[in-house]
Specification:
- This protein is mainly alpha-helical.
- The chain has one domain.
- Helix 1 runs antiparallel to helix 4 and helix 3 crosses helix 4.
- Keywords: Membrane, Transmembrane, Transmembrane helix.
- This is Phage holin family protein.
- InterPro entries: Phage_holin_4_2 (IPR007165).
């Protein structure tokens, strides 16, 4: 459920920013959904190969920044694959990557999975123990 929510939200963010940014062109929402799926797959299969050396260089202090930059690079890579999606320049891809990261964080905070609550990543009102 959370995966579907992330994909739909990422597609909505990409499609919405394409409407407001003249450097980004997405033909329709179906293309934005395909971009979100490809971005998720590339982040899963290739993103860690790019992120790991960069995190070693920064001593894992800039993990969030590295993740955003790698997402922007992957968006430019998807741009080269798809004819119905274009990004002119790196800065618009970086803006989309930041917006996708912020939207994903908001979704994770508002609809956490059970694993996130059990690991202590997020605290819900129902999981808090009373103080005695």
């Amino acid at each position: 459920m959370n995966l579907i929510l992330h994909l739909l939200l990422d597609a909505a963010v990409i499609f919405g920013l394409a409407y407001f940014m003249p450097q980004v062109d997405v033909k329709n929402f179906g293309t934005a959904l395909l971009i979100a799926v490809l971005l998720g797959l590339l982040n899963f299969f290739v993103g860690w190969l790019i992120r790991f050396p960069l995190n070693l260089v920064t001593f894992f202090l800039l993990t969030g920044l590295v993740r955003i930059i790698v997402t922007a690079v992957l968006l430019k890579l998807i741009d080269s694959f798809l004819d119905s999606f274009t990004i002119v320049g790196f800065w618009p891809a970086l803006v989309i990557a930041i917006a996708v990261a912020v939207a994903g964080t908001l979704i994770d905070r508002s609809a956490p999975t059970q694993e996130m609550v059990e690991s202590g990543y997020v605290v819900t009102l129902f999981s808090m123990q009373p103080i005695s």
